């Protein structure tokens, strides 16, 4: 009697811990598509297709290696709709001596796993997820006793341990972080090379038909689906990025441009988060390009920082602070999500560009998420639970361990400063500096009041005024607070009235 080895939809790696030491003659791998995982948030249609297609491809790869796979499809007539229910049915079918699983990516799944031994009457071995570069016990040791858990200091330790971009006497180039060199606006006439994309094969097309039939009302379109769904395709995407876009990624990673959703970004986050790509392999490929003179240091360091630094950091923080972290609402925000975020009309071109792009591609790069939708949510005081659900629902790479800290902490400051030492609040001037969105907008980015004034401007000063007392002890907020306090009372009142009128207006109508 062998073991039942569970592989989840974001654990599609042949070296996943649950498969270590597998005996194909005695053990069975269980993979299950269940409605509960498809509906706990209203996922973008492309995210559903991506995960389900990648699961089906991975199951076939296991079978090709001689590994027995018990695969439950979403449309199987006896599907219970829950992971726990399918596990119980598999136990009844196979009578295993025990269950082996890999540590999951979401708190709610771990809570279910912790109850399986008692319910099923079998030992359940939940193994550490070795795909990450920083094991969770290692992160807890780093965090212990620290008053502030800043990513930059964690990142430096990870660089030393991994040996990436290191010389014998310290970091290559003499400094750890080149973020200041990564903020160029896209110059007119700059033509980003098209990314490597993959048209749906028969397996993916079958999943697309299933999703279109089962989830017709979900956000998003399937027309442009071209995500990698196998490790081979994911590796091709990485190679294409290294060859054609990495060299300019550093300069333009914060840039935004209408009609240019990808720019010089890597498009590897979906593959990393599903397990189709190794984070170390991504970092080593970028470092090799730098060592060979094919990419500059600011580009390679920025790319490695996002993976070795930020990605590992937010995972560690998520598991350190959950489940209470998800309930934090430090700024007491409670405004409903506006309908424009689900495709409703808005005159704000920046929001229009990002929401439409998200609808069509299930993708927006980090600055679009942080400084357009995230900044707007922060300034408008949108409810953190609704904002987090939206980010989880609409992006193909969103899994809670990575989405929640990025949104809750970095974008909307709902954690009160656990992640970011100040809120990432900005007026329309930031968006105008980093994009061409404002040039095509119905609003005037240079105006703060009046019928055509950019809403971001008044919302920014209303946000600062609303939280003046809260931010008074934060040295990084001293400059905007000083500017606010120097304002003539009539100007301050006019800005707050402008913000109030917008927040009460048609563009802020909640979802119907």
Approximate shape = globular
Strand order of the largest sheet: 3-2-1-4-5
Query: What is the arithmetic mean of pLDDT?
Result: 96
Total of helices: 22
Share of helical residues: 40-55%
Q: What fraction strand?
A: 5-15%
Order of helices and strands: EEHHEHEHHEHHEEHHHHHHHHHHHHHHH
| Strand count | 7
Terminus-to-terminus distance: 54 Å
Q: Can you identify the CATH superfamily of the largest domain?
A: DNA Cyclobutane Dipyrimidine Photolyase, subunit A, domain 3
CATH C-level of the largest domain: Mainly Alpha
In the CATH classification, which architecture of the largest domain applies? Orthogonal Bundle
CATH fold-type name of the largest domain: DNA Cyclobutane Dipyrimidine Photolyase, subunit A, domain 3
Rg over CA atoms, rounded to whole Å, is 24 Å
Largest sheet: 5 strands, parallel
Question: Are there runs of 5+ residues with pLDDT below 50, and where?
Answer: none
- Structural class of the helix and strand makeup? mainly alpha
Q: Tell me the count of domains.
A: 3
InterPro entries: Crypto/Photolyase_FAD-like_sf, PhrB-like, Rossmann-like_a/b/a_fold, UV-DNA_repair_photolyase
GO molecular function: lyase activity
Keywords: Lyase
Organism: uncultured Craurococcus sp
